[in-house]
Design a protein that fits this description.
The protein has 293 residues and is of the alpha/beta class. It has ten helices and ten strands. The protein has helices at 3-7, 45-53, 84-100, 114-120, 151-159, 174-182, 190-194, 199-206, 240-248, 271-291, and strands spanning 26-30, 59-60, 65-66, 73-77, 105-109, 127-131, 164-167, 186-188, 212-218, 254-261. Bound molecules: manganese (II) ion.
Length: 293
């Protein structure tokens, strides 16, 4: 053993490997925020989530999985670029390579735009569960056709509306609401969620027929009272407890990959970053359970 191994840490990287146990997830960060429409700074999100993750308990009493006994690998962050197409194409290539190797990508944003790249690399039978306060289904915004307010629209253009389950909408322009209706998109809006006795049952029902899912979480789906550090805060959202219940409803599904996006540490008080870390931990535990480890 060297002094480096004894005294020097690689944190905030969250790699820890238990001998003989392949990594449950392969974490990588996408420090990209060049097309943010309101507050910028989500490029600082990935390391803030890592930092929070290193400071929460990673035993899940609910799922009875102890991540201390599992392996997680952290690949680091994507090289910074301000070019949207280049970022999206790099994400698609990295995710495609991970999927080919049988690994499960866990992506930390950065802007939601990255999901266009990551979901493009998913196998054709994968459905996306898109948690967001917004629909992200504008056709164009800020003179851009691919950016974080149009991301899901571009995914639908490419993969089809039947691939999408949207959860948590409460803020979108009139054109997006009519687009959702016209395309018959499965949207579990906040209005539906808050009128259901057990909101997580709505998601359970929506994914009933699907075995492979990709989970994309814009932290603004959570109410700003619980997660203030996001790019486009929107009142009237889920509590942290409610989104966790939604994730537990996915127990038994094959989660092919996931992302947690739009954290802006500079507007946060620690609530959104620890919520992101908790979501990272619980999603990883669900993956461990599904892999039967
Ligand atoms: Mn959003």
């Amino acid at each position: 053993m060297s002094y480096r191994e004894l005294f020097v840490t690689t944190q905030p990287m969250v790699t820890y490997i238990k001998p003989g146990i392949p990594p449950a997830v392969s974490v990588f960060g996408v420090p990209f925020d060049s097309s943010s429409t309101y507050r910028t700074g989500s490029r600082f999100g990935p390391n803030a989530i890592r930092d929070a993750f290193l400071n929460i308990e990673i035993y899940s009493p609910r799922l009875k999985v102890d991540l201390e006994n599992q392996s997680v690998e952290d690949l680091g962050n994507l090289h910074h670029t301000a070019n949207i197409e280049r970022m999206v194409s790099s994400v698609e290539k990295v995710v495609g390579e991970l999927v080919d190797k049988g690994k499960t990508p866990a992506i930390l944003g950065g802007e939601h735009t990255l999901t266009y790249g990551s979901f493009s690399a998913m196998p054709e039978d994968t459905r996306i569960i898109y948690f967001d306060a917004h629909f992200d289904m504008r056709n164009e915004y800020s003179d851009l056709s691919l950016m974080h307010a149009t991301c899901l629209r571009r995914i639908i253009d490419k993969k089809g509306a039947d691939k999408v389950i949207h959860v948590g909408a409460r803020a979108a322009c009139a054109e997006e609401w009519s687009y959702v209706e016209k395309e018959n998109i499965n949207a579990i809006t906040c209005e539906k969620l808050f009128n259901a006795p057990r909101p997580e049952e709505l998601l359970k029902e929506a994914v009933k027929e699907f075995s492979n899912v990709y989970v994309s979480i814009d932290l603004d789906v959570i109410d700003p009272a619980y997660a203030p550090g996001v790019g486009n805060p929107e009142p009237g959202g889920l509590s942290t407890h409610q989104i966790l219940e939604m994730l537990y409803a996915l127990r038994g599904k094959h989660i092919a990959g996931f992302d947690i996006v739009e954290l802006i540490p500079h507007y946060d008080n620690g609530a959104a970053s620890t919520a992101a870390a908790r979501l990272l931990a619980e999603l990883t535990c669900l993956i461990v359970l599904e892999k039967g480890r």
